Fold:
Amino acid sequence: MKEKKKSDLSVLLGYAGNYKGLTFLGLLLSAVSMVLGMLPYICIWLVVRDLIQVAPNWTEASGISRYGWMAFIFAVAGIAVYFAALMCTHLAAFRTASNIRKAGMKHLMKAPLGFSDSNASGLLRNRLDGAAAETETLLAHNLADIVGTVAMFLGMLVLMIVFDWRMGLACLLAAVVSIVSMFTMMGGKNAKLMQEYQGAQDVMSKAGTEYVRGIPVVKVFQQTVYSFKAFKEAIENYSKKAEQYTDGVCRTPQSVNLTFTEGAFVFLVPLALLLAPAALASGSFAGFVTNFAFYAIFSAIISTALAKIMFAASGMMLAHTALSRINEVMNAPTLKITDHPKVPKDNSVEFKNVSFTYDGAEVPAIDNVSFKVEPGQTVALVGPSGGGKTTAASLIPRFWDTSAGSVLVGGVDVRDADPHVLMDQVAFVFQNNRLFKTSILENVRVSRPDATREEVQAALSQAQCDDILQKLPDGMDTVLGTKGTYLSGGEQQRVALARAILKDAPIVVLDEATAFADPENEAMIQKALGTLTKGRTVIMIAHRLSTVVGADRIIVMDNGKVIEQGTHSTLLQAKGLYERMWQEYNRAVRWRISKEAQ
Ligand code: ADP
Ligand code: MG
Structure:
């Protein structure tokens, strides 16, 4: 366990980078402040000694005020140095947290786009942020306190020898008992119980979040008590674990711990009573009383120090869990970027025996798929939902890398191309195109940041967005998502098309949207698509078969495999899946038209 903590710490300090030195300076200052903080007690000892020596002629004790001032100065200096120490450790801790965030984000930036797109990445980003913040307590406070406490114990050992080792030992013994009882709560099989207890707490808070998120569903479906079940169980489990841990494990050691922390004199007083007669007999009673006074006062700082160790231990644990979360981020997959990029020769796209299985899935989403799209051709991917069309398209911009086989753009494996070159060559319009909460102008311009206003305007016009701009208060400069300016799904799709048109890339990959089938939008989207695909290499995932009739080739995918390919007319003649889909599609269209006619 100790080994592990040490490595946690060195990992954390690794993130501190240049600020590592500052951490050490802070720790050193903390030790110095602790020693300074002990000096006033020595001054008090000197005062008591002087007083006892001259008793009862108190006025003869001439050094008292000097010692008083010294005590004051040492106390103030101790506090000042402690401030300086915390300043150093805080600076270093904040920098470390920021470095952790940077390193994590840098790593996530290298993750495949598909990963960034999934919930997993959002979750990881959140957790990274939280975890980075949690390391702060350890680095800024706990470490300094640990070092300070160690310094204090060393100081105590020295003082023990300087004054009266027996009474010093009595003070120390109380501290040792308290520390030992503290660690029995955390070590061995109790550690497992504590983990279970913390785990139960985690589960409960997750169940709570889940429950709040689920409220709309619960309401819509008129569910009642049963919807509480998971949450209730989590609470009950937590209560059980909490009881097990607090009652079964902590009760005795915690009582012992608190008793000895708060009462460091429990050994001191009986010991003093035992020693007093001998001191009296030997004539050194004055010195004995002085020493006792010293340790009695001094024992007060022991409890403060022990409380700090307690916090430090929990800080260590916090940092440990935080680090494991940080490692989770650092272990997220990354996209390998080639050092020797090859330049695509033309605007063709080819799948060569491509297979791809999602993480954790049992069957491949794409299974040994091969086809080629010549420059300037339009190829349509069609097929039942879940057939693998979107997945196939995602492999082109390396949302994911293939599990087997290769995807070639311009004759070059996408893994061997410079990602920037690849991105310049290919424009993508996916179903879940995200529009940012900024102006339409900026939203379109992301595809080509150096485009002028006029160029953006032209792209929007070509994408049939004029009507959208007209109805928005500030036209192209309207910020989306504010003051009730939301775009419908079909409108969003057209803005996304404007983005792709502005990009003016020679290859276009389109995942056509199904949801926006109102006739008006559909007609405009068709028109925008016409502009976008003209003269380009196009891979289009089509849901409305009317859009694919004119394609150079239609590839029918089902269960991750290419099962048919050809032109519209050859596929109809083949009387396979495509022909059945076509009949189905026409029935649906006729049904819709007849509905609209009513
Ligand atoms: P299509 O676009 O033809 O409807 P998809 O490519 O979206 O099909 O899906 C193909 C298969 O891969 C489906 O079985 C789907 O459940 C699975 N799939 C799609 N996206 C993911 C993902 N992000 N993680 C895991 N499985 C996925
Ligand atoms: Mg799809």
